[in-house]
Amino acid sequence: MPLTFSISVGTQIESTRKYDIYNVILDLPNNTQKLISPKDVRDAFLSAWSNASFKQTIGKGGIEYIGIDSNNPEDRDIKKKIYIGKRNYLGLDVMTDYFLSDDNDTDIYINNMKPDSHLTQSTKITILCGTDSELYKDSTYIEVKPEGEDISLSFFNKGPINVKSENDRVYINYLGFPTVAETASASESGELDGSILKFHGTDILDGYLKWGKPEFDELTIGSEESIINIYGSPSVYVNDYPLEFIEDTPVGATVGGINKGDTFDSMSFMNENKEYQNWPIVEVIRKLLYPPSPPELFIELLNLDTEYEYFPTGVTSSSYITYSVMNYTNNTVTYSIISSTGSIVEDETLSSIVGETVSIDLFNNDTGTFSIGLSANNGEYWNISTASIWFLNPIIYGFSSSDISFTHSDVGTYVGTLINDVGIDNRLLWPYLADDQELLLSITGEGYMYILMPSEYPTFSIIKDPNGFTIHDYSSPESSSFTYSSTPITPVGANYISPEASWVVYKTLLYCEYSGSEEFKITY
User: Fold this and answer.
1) Which domains does the chain have, with CATH numbers?
2) Which residues 6+ apart lie within 8 Å of 395 measured at CB?
3) pTM of the complete model
4) What is the mean pLDDT of residues 301-308?
5) Which residue, 358, 371, 355, 296, is CA-closest to 321?
6) Residue 105 burial by CB count (10 A; 0-12/13-18/19+): exposed, middle or buried?
7) What is the pLDDT at residue 453?
8) Which of 23, 243, 256, 356 could form a disulfide with 18 if both were Cys (CB 3.0 to 4.6 A apart)?
9) CA proximity to 450, closest of 373, 366, 512
10) Where does the pLDDT of residue 346 fall: very low under 50, low under 70, confident under 90, or very high at 90 and above?
C-alpha cells in the first residue's frame, strides 16, 4: 500500500492522504494569516482515518464488518506484518529486522503488555464468554511463558477441551487419532466397548491410532525387569480354571504341610498385608512342600593341616568349620555357631540352604574335648547340632646323638632340647583309643632313637622295626633294645608343647641308624 494517495480527484472534495502525521501538522499551522484551506482539513481527516488499520469497513454486498482497510480505492489491502503488544522492552524495539524481514514468513506477532519490571514476562490471552460474569475469573486462557531455555505453551480450561476434525484425523506430535466417522462406526457396532487405541502402520509418518480389542501377538507378556499384576473378581481364570484354590471339604490325610482336616475356605488365607483373601495356588503348593519341621543341621570342625578332629596342645592351630542349614519351611531362619567360650561366628540370617566354611585359630594347653554347636531357629522349631574336637599331647620321635640319662637332675632340660632338635614335623597326633591299638611311625636318622609317649597313655607293649622284628617287648625287658623312664618327664624349654604336659621317654640302648622308607610299628 502506498503511503500517499488521493480520492475524488478533480472534484470539489478531492482529498490526499499525507505521508505521515508530521506532514498533516505542517499543513495546519496556526491560522493567523487565514491560509488553511478546506482541502488541508479534508487531507487531515483522510490521513487520520487511513492510519487506523482496524476500522469499520464494507465488504461485498454492502455488508459492514470491522477489519483492515487502507481506504485507498486502488489498493484497499494492507499486506504488512501485524504486531500486537508492547513496542519496546528495556529500551529496545521488540520488532527487530529479523521479525520484519520478508524472509520471515510469520504474519502476526502477539506479545504481552506487562511492565518491563514484571518478573514473569509471559503472554496470556483470556477468552470471555457467557452471561454470568462470575465465571469470567475462571475463563479459558492461553499462556506462553519462558521456562529455562524453552518456551512453554499451555491451554487452561475448567471444562472439557474438544479438538475435532470433521473429515480427517487430529494429529498430536505426528500421531494420528481416529476420525469422527471411525469412532462413530465403532460405537454403533458395539466394538467401542472394551476397545483400546492401537497403532497401525510401519512408522509415525504413515501410521495412526485405531480402535481395537486388546490382543497379544506374542507369547511373552511383560519384561524381566518388572512385576505384572493381574486382577480379577471373584478370581482370575486361565483356560476356564481359577488361579485361586477354594475348597471347604476337609483334607482326608496329611500330605506335606497340609494336615488331615484342613480346609481352604473362601477368604481364609491371610496375606502379607494381614488381609484375608482366597488361597492362591502358589501358597497351597508352598504349604504342601514346606511342612513345619526343624531345620536340618550339619557342622564339622577339622584341623587344617591333618584334616582330622585332633589338635595339639600348646600350639596355635588353624582349623575350619564346615556347616550347613537346610530349612524345610518358608520361614526365615536365624542361626549361630557357638562354643564353650562364646560365639565364634556372628549370628546371620538365611532363607533356604547355606553351606559355608569358616576358618578359626584354636589354642589350648589342656588335653580333652572341645565342642562347638550350630543353633538354628525357623520361627516354629529350634534345633542344635554339635561337633567335638580333641586336644592331644603329641607322640614325639626322632634320632639324637645325645645319650640322655633319665636319672640326671637336669633330665627335663635335656628332654626339652631333644624335642627342639627333632623338630615339630616329627610328631604324631593320634589319641589312645583301646588296648592293642597300633601306631606307625616313620623314623629315620642316626644316633639314639627316641620315642616320647604322653604320660596319660599306657606304656608300649610291643615295638617292631620295619622288617617286622620285635625290638621291644614289655613282658621281656631283658631282651629289649629300648630303655624308658620309670616316671614321666616334664620337658623344660621345649617349643610348641604344653608347659604342663609330661612324657614317658623311650630310648634305644645303642647308637643306631635307619634311612629306609618303611615304618616302625608300636602296639599299646
Assistant:
1) 5-68 (no CATH), 122-161 (no CATH), 171-212 (no CATH), 242-289 (no CATH), 296-392 (2.60.40.10), 395-523 (no CATH)
2) 427, 428, 429, 430, 439, 441, 451, 452, 453, 454
3) 0.46
4) 87
5) 358
6) exposed
7) 96
8) 23
9) 512
10) very low
